[in-house]
Design brief:
Blueprint lengths: L9 H4 L4 H9 L6 H18 L3 H6 L5 E4 L6 H12 L3 E5 L15 H38 L9 H24 L6 E7 L21 H4 L1 H5 L2 E7 H16 L2 H15 L1 E5 L17 H13 L2 E4 L2 E4 L4 E6 L11 H5 L3 E4 L5 H9 L5 H10 L4 E4 L1 H17 L6 H10 L1 H6 L7 E4 L1 H13 L1 H7 L1
Parallel strand pairs: 1-8, 1-9, 2-5, 5-8, 10-11
Antiparallel strand pairs: 3-4, 6-7
Helix pairs in contact: 2-3, 3-5, 6-10, 6-11, 14-16, 16-17, 16-19
Length: 459
Amino acid sequence: MPIYLPEVTPSSAESLTPREIVSELDKYIVGQHKAKRAVAIALRNRLRRQKLPPDMAEEVAPKNILMIGPTGVGKTEIARRLARLTRSPFLKVEASKFTEVGYVGRDVESIVRDLVGLAVDMVREEMLALVREKARQHAEERLLDLLLPPSPGVADESEATEHRDVANRTRDRFREQLREGRLDHRTVELEVRERSTPMFEVVSGSSLEEIDINVKEMLPGIFQGRSKKRRLRVPEAFDHLCREEEQKLVDMETVSRSAVERVEQAGIVFLDELDKVAGREGGHGPDVSREGVQRDLLPIVEGTTVNTKWGMVRTDHILFIAAGAFHVSKPSDLIPELQGRFPIRVELEALGREDFVRILTEPRNALIRQYVALLGTEGVDLQFDRAAVERIADFAALVNERTENIGARRLHTVMERLLDEVSFDAPQLSGTSITIDEPYVNRMLAEIVKSDDLSRYVL
């Protein structure tokens, strides 16, 4: 899994002030200043904690955050961007996926297991990046060994020295040709290990997450696969050898230890839809286990030790950011113990027409910039005038008002509908310039927005 590249380097992330953190978040998320301030302070407190003496640092608990607001206002994006900013392991989960023990559903401890799995991938990719150049050098030497015939044995000392000099000059010529791509047409024979995937029967009702048995150690032959020789072209053989050398140079035990430590000290879990499990005991049907889910979540949020295949992981200092619309239920409907584990609460504001105009144009990943770049790959010069942007925002706000308010996500459906014709005909429009103006927006959207029935199904 590719590592998320941070917007700033890790060393500079440690020196970011809360004001600078908010400024970084402003580049991607419009508004919601209170929520940005809350996560900025939480992150700064984490950095402050790392500078404390170990005995004091152990006592400082993370200040978990509860975000309250409708869908599509930026709750998830704030948490995700915060994690990217600090290169922290980040996991988004929906509370509604979990159930009390004894019911069908996921075990809450899988949150920690999944988070460590992501951290292992992240750390491994970082270490691979460090050894990549060395691995390429080793792979190049192995490939040259395959391309060049072995030197014949010579008894005489002077002849042996001469043969070595000739062999070295030949090897240097081949190395130069290999780097210039002049040997790409040639093939070499490589021993390739085939990956086998055995099938196992799982007893109904059991959970794989609860099985703490390393099957690979018990049955190593099944998972190692068989080796067979294959003829590969030089570029494919080089890539294969590079991967092999990278794996040799990366110590997975070190990766696992680093990943566990990173999760314990810098992990962030975004717990979405917490309001869906905010019911109290006494419900019926699917609601019966809601309070049970809260009680199962409590030790994870409060601080416990979870057994994973990478080792024991403590959750005491993982930052939990919970979110929910809380339209039907209220934060006070959560069990008191869980409420107490989210001391910081921020309310996010619903987005309106002016916010939509800013979302379309201001962030680095603004929707209009995305569409301009996408169609630019087809040779189409797409432009939007200001009146068109404001009209798009009007329509999005109007549909949100008349139907379900899904916040900024409404802009995605509106933009797709608006650019339907241009996107379809783009290959034939290469080399042309298209300006989206207010009359064009009205022609594409006005009739749909005018009809409530069409709005519900199309936008």
